[in-house]
Write a structure and sequence with these properties.
With about 475 residues, this protein is an alpha+beta fold. Helices cover about 55% and strands about 20% of the residues.
């Protein structure tokens, strides 16, 4: 078998195999955590005392803590600046040796939101010899699970840790060995992340349900004014669909969590949280846009009433100051006949009033005239007082709803503050004592806001129960 492999390698790369050396088996193990600790075991086949030229073995640029184990006949030098090893095997007296290289890669792990990832070549493409067979393992810490794995690989257990592996052979995977093995792996304590995400998501449910009720009340209020809010109704229904999907995702995440499928549980919990945030934004957009429409409608009605009142006052003023017109004779001289007629009518009216006043008490006429003026005044007031009360009632309701929205927004900021405190506690930015104190302060603020919201909602419900005038 070794002879066949050696012949194949000599045919493929004569320059290298003129040195009579190749790797029969190359094993790499990556212990992934905050950094990647790498162990390489290389089984080399060579002709004794035949490898005359030095062999340059490259190392990753971020490697540190480099150690080498090899037979005494193998001499080597480590260039720490340029990251490579120079092997001198000219004095090796045997045809089979094992070389072990250990190092730590400091910059190969990327972390975001508690999820760590490794991306790069798991097996190098430029080596001083040709490799016949490769085995690469990735081992993660206890209580961690693999997330996405590319290329796909089987997950198995080594002690208390989970691992995956890749195998390649020059007979069947020649391009894989010569080009390297690119991988992309994510891993995390998905049980912890899924549990935290589910807790945070369910804590926000009450805020979103309140936003739903607020949007629903706003649409009902818009119907009172016969406003066209069809676009907001569509947005309201879209948010309702996402809210329905949210409950499906969060229930699925909890079921997967209880079954031990932590990575899928985390994915569905993250999706549920995203749906909940989108739903909250849309409900709040509906409430804000509808409130703006209602406010504009109120302003138009108030302006209309103001214009009507101004026109009526002008009419009364014109009616009071309009002078009597006299007719003139064709020649420009005044005619005496109209004056005689007017004088006669006035004299008759005065005489009639005098006779009536003699038979009635003196204060009856004054009382009658005052009553007539009060009736006219009452009629004027009744013409507008109903609408004025309606406007005041609507203003009161809009003001209460506005205060509730402001307090809800402030409450959401405090809840976001609690979430940030949890992240700081997980990342060890703050200790448990500071977390407890700061969270207690925020909880007290939220309780005070909840009490104020409850009082305002009670007032708003009482106002809505009263019939509009």
């Amino acid at each position: 078998m070794r002879g066949i492999a050696l012949i194949l390698l000599i045919i493929l790369l004569p320059g290298i195999h003129a040195q009579e050396i190749y790797s029969e088996q190359h094993n790499l193990t990556y212990f992934l955590n905050n950094a990647a600790k790498v162990e390489e075991n290389i089984q080399l086949v060579l002709m004794p005392f035949s490898v005359k030229n030095p062999l340059y073995y490259p190392l990753p640029e971020d490697s540190s803590n480099i150690t080498i184990k090899a037979p005494k006949s193998v001499r080597y030098t480590i260039n720490f600046d340029r990251k490579y090893i120079i092997f001198d095997m000219s004095q090796v007296p045997v045809n089979h040796i094992d070389v072990e290289i250990n190092y730590t890669r400091l910059n190969s792990i990327f972390e975001q939101n508690g999820v760590k990832s490794y991306s790069g070549l798991a097996f190098k493409k430029y080596l001083p010899w040709v490799t016949y067979s490769v085995n690469v393992k990735f081992v993660i810490p206890p209580n961690y699970d693999f997330g996405s794995i590319s290329p796909p690989a089987r997950v198995f257990t080594i002690g208390n840790s989970k691992a995956i592996e890749y195998n390649a052979n020059i007979r069947f995977n020649f391009s894989t060995i010569t080009d390297g093995i690119p991988v992309n792996i994510t891993y995390a304590n998905y049980r912890k992340l899924a549990d935290e995400t589910i807790t945070i998501t369910k804590a926000r449910q009450s805020e979103v349900l309140f936003a739903f009720k607020d949007a629903n009340s706003s649409l009902e209020n818009a119907q009172t004014y016969n406003l066209n809010v069809s676009n907001q109704v569509l947005l309201y229904r879209e948010a309702g669909g996402e809210l329905y999907s949210y409950f499906g995702e969060i229930n699925l995440a909890e079921n997967l969590m209880s079954s031990g499928y932590y990575y899928p549980a985390y994915l569905h919990a993250r999706k549920a949280l995203s749906l909940l945030d989108d739903t909250s934004i849309k409900y709040r957009d509906v409430s804000r846009n509808v409130s703006i429409s209602v406010q504009r409608a109120l302003e138009r009605e108030i302006l209309k009433v103001s214009n009507m009142s101004t026109r009526e006052k002008k009419y009364e003023l014109n009616a009071t100051v309009t002078p009597l017109r006299t007719t003139s004779s064709p020649g420009g001289k005044s005619s005496a006949a109209p004056y005689i007629i007017i004088f006669s009518v006035l004299f008759g009216i005065i005489a009639a009033v005098y006779l009536i006043s003699k038979s009635m008490p003196a204060n009856v006429g004054k009382t009658s005239r005052m009553r007539d003026f009060r009736v006219i005044s009452d009629l004027k007031k009744k013409k507008f007082s109903g609408f004025d009360r309606k406007v005041e009632t609507t203003r009161e309701r809009a003001g209460l709803a506005s205060e509730i929205r402001k307090l809800s927004k402030l409450r959401g900021q405090y809840e976001l503050g609690i979430e940030n405190l949890k992240k700081k506690l997980v990342s060890n930015e703050i200790d448990e004592e500071q977390f407890t104190d700061d969270k207690g302060n925020l909880d007290r603020e939220i309780e005070a806001i909840d009490r104020d919201i409850l009082i305002l909602k009670k007032k708003l419900d009482e106002s809505r129960k009263r019939k509009m005038p």
